Amino acid sequence: MRRFFRNILRTIGQNKISYIGAVLIIAMGALIFTGMTNFNIIFEEKCSEYFNQTSFADVFVEVTSMPKQKVSILEDIDGIDDSFGRLEGNMRLLRDGETKVITIHAMAYSPDDNMNKLLLIPEPDNMSDTDIYISKKMCDIYNIQSGDEITVIANNKTKKLTCRGIAYSSERMTSTADESATSPDSSVFDIAAMSTDGLEKLLGAHGEVTNLGIKLSDGVAYSDVRYSIEQMLKPYSVVSITERKDQESFNGVTEEIDMYNLIISVIPTIFMAVTVFMLYIVLKKMIDKDRILIGTMKAFGASNMEILTQYMKQAVVIGIAGGALFLIPAEMVGKFLFIDDAIYFNLPDHTYTLHISSWIISILISLATAIISVYLGVNGVMKINPAESMRAAAPKGGSFKVPAVLGKLLNTRQKIGLTSMLRNKGRSLIIAVAVAFPFSCVAAFGSYNILVDKMVNDQFGKIENYDIKVKLTELIDRNDANDILRNMKDVYRAEAAASYSTLMTAANHYEYAPLMVLNNNSETYRIMDRYGKYYEPRDDGLIMSHHLADKLKVKTGDIVKIECNDLTYTNSPVEVPIVQIVEDASGMYSFINGEGIKRYFPVTDKVNLFLITADPGKTDSIKTQISKMRSISFMFTQVDQKKSYAEMMSTVVLTMNFLAIFSIFAGVLMIYNIMGISIRERKNEFGTLMVLGMTKPEISEIIIFEQVINFCFGILIGLPWIHAWSRIIEFAAGSDTETITMQIFPIMWIAALLICIVSTVISVILIIRDVFNMELTDVLKERE
Amino acid sequence: MKEILRAEGLIKKFISGEIVVNALRGVDFSINEGEFVVVLGPSGSGKSTMLNIIGGIETITDGKLFYNDIEVHKLSKSGLTDYRRKYVGFIFQFYNLMPNLTAIENIELAAELTNNALDPKELLAAVGLAERADYFPAKMSGGQQQRVAIARALCKNPDLLLCDEPTGALDTKTGVDVLKLLLDFNQKYNKTIIVVTHNANIAYVADKVFYFRDGHIEKVVVNEKPLTPDEVEW
């Protein structure tokens, strides 16, 4: 059978474009699958290693202040194995000429730390009191090098410190300033590490700790010890208690991994499935062309197994080639996504390791596809007897006749085209699918990028519509705040508001979430749902984000208990009704107005937020005025917030862009290959038409007419696909705090349509050229 | 009778890499209007190549071919298309019907290519397949398909009908039926028909017979009194 195999190889040689197309199509699917799978595996591995390496705690507690020697009393609670305390505190970094308010969250470091260890690079031999290690991002943004001297203000004193390197904390892989910040922004807030002695001196907090870590015994759940911890730590004013899964850093990483697990389990799988289907179609069609050859071999006495074996060799080559061809680019994609995420999450180890297992899976999927495709193709021919297989297969399309009304509108060529299409529905459907796939992918994945821009613009244009947001170190009287704002120069519009970090409880559910105190008829901070409807803050209860309501399992009319040191001095929770749940796009907020605060809480209406819109071109003037004020915690500019918010979404945006780009390549290949195969299998038909005297324009008209209809059909079936992709993206890219409402933007409709049109036009031109380049005499020698 | 086709020193070479195949080595002939010409010869003698050149689906390496006043050897690709469309009808050994068109649609397709087409339904009836009008080619026997192919070729009402082994894939009886159809068309409409075949018996019904060997016409035999198909012992 070696000669038979040689014939198969020569057939491949004669149809190399189709076969190369088949290999490239499956290779595209393998690329997306392998690249994204590896990215997620490695990201998960590195995060897990990081948490293990730093002895990540099971429970995290923030207290106002607590003597260090008291920390170990936690180990008296049944179910707690180990405890740890660390002093942490904010200090302001001063930079010459810098108008931003830059806050460093300093964390005490000791080589003997037994939990939530900080990683310092280079590892210090002997740390002096003035040595400081700063986060890599902040060092990069402000070009702070090892050995550079920096000036900080802490505890109202100015102090010179020397940067000795980079600090990493697994507790703060993303550093969000506080509840008033929308997203992490290292240009205004990030971590640093100092020796315990150094930080104690700087903050004037000798022997004190503010952040605790707790390790639970095996089999003990957080809920088993939570009450005991709260009771034991009550004298030290608990700010927050969080279990590992809800800890900001761990939760952020877990959500990212979960989101990618979902994206990877859905999108590349669908990609792979479509490419698998296309490979099947291509190979089956190519084998169908060997119908007579297979029949002849059977007539000569070759067994089914002998014939099948020869074609299986072809399948193995295509499968392995398809699975392996783009493994290197796949690794590049995986590495690119990993590095992007590793930077965002401040992972100390950016080493991208190869995962041969996903290579093997990719090759195996590709191989299995090729083998199944070839098997189905060959088996289909072998089922019929040799004599039958040497005759042309009957069209399966049935007896479609062009209706009389339509017949009058169409000319002969168009009728031929229409008849051919409708009597070969399978062929037409495949071409339509080849169009629908890139059309839907480009429209949906391409729109995500624009959607994120829109979300950013909605958040910082329609909801938070100010130039500068200032968080004060303490609550001040509203009238005093208004006086300060009135005395500021270059202010176009300004409002004072408040944000409180609270613990909200409803039945057995609790959540740490910000409570925003907003002004009615505000023009700087408004409540808006994702459909663009605005709501006014109320005095009779809370307006709550549906993300928070979902977590608390509450609905309108329910009561939540609120605990907050600044609002409930007695530490006894205050009950507040929920008057409205808002379907907003992002965040886990609840809102009330100043009157509402006075109505429900035993406090006066105080504020800790300035929301300022500058006169045109005067933002820097305002920043300068604010940076000179002492009682400022944070200052966020609209521009920086937009940038950091966009950075937060960047990995998903990158992923969607990759998918859109690869779907273009895959689409062009599919459209050309499938159309090409469909036309080439009709060479005899077109050859006969040419012999009959049909002109090039007439034959072109048949081909073009058919492909235009197929294209339109493809676009039509692409519409529900877009809907499906949109729901998948919403599901995959959404999170507990983000609701993605996909919409396809006009520009992407046009782009997707244009890409498909261009691909189709190029394909049709090449196919027509191919048809006219064929030797009529050769074609007519072939049996149908 | 008026001369319809004239060839002068036709040469056709097929070049594939370093291999040159001399398919026609200088062929001269003349065919008159209304003649039924049979071309005989062994495989590879060049008879099909000559038919393809006459039909305008193959180009000439050298020499001249005239169809009435048309210098076929000088025609461009589009000129050849126009020539085929207006003057030539083709019948192939393996029928080459449009697989997605029914019998009647295949004939109508040809009718729509010309202004003086014959009635497709009448032709289908004439080839004895009126009741098979809505059958697809794959559902028809070889003889039936060839009869549809003849009807399709005739429908264009060509002056020149070229048949490449028209009975080659058919049984004897069906082959005779097909031959009768061709002769009927030849006599009824005074159309010129050239049949390339291996079947030497067909030569008995021809007006003129070309014997091909090694790329040239070895001899030309003119039948003064051609037989009818029924008179030939098949």
Q: Provide mean pLDDT of chain A, rounded.
A: 86
Q: Provide a count of the helices of chain B.
A: 6
**Rg from Cα of chain A:** 33 Å
Please work out how many helical segments of chain A DSSP would assign.
24
Biggest β-sheet of chain A: count, sense, barrel? 6 strands, mixed, barrel
Report Rg of chain B.
17 Å
Strand content of chain A: 15-25%
The beta-strand count of chain B equals 10
Mean pLDDT of chain B: 89
Secondary structure class of chain B reads: alpha/beta
- Shape descriptor of chain B: globular
> What is the general shape of chain A?
elongated
Q: For the largest beta sheet of chain B, what order do the strands appear in spatially?
A: 6-7-8-3-9-10
> Which oligomeric form is depicted?
heterodimer
Characterize the largest beta sheet of chain B: strand count, sense, and whether it forms a barrel.
6 strands, mixed
Specify which chain pair forms the largest interface.
Answer: A-B, 30 and 36 residues
In terms of per-residue confidence, which ranges of chain A show pLDDT below 50 for 5 or more consecutive residues? none
Distance between the termini of chain B: 30 Å
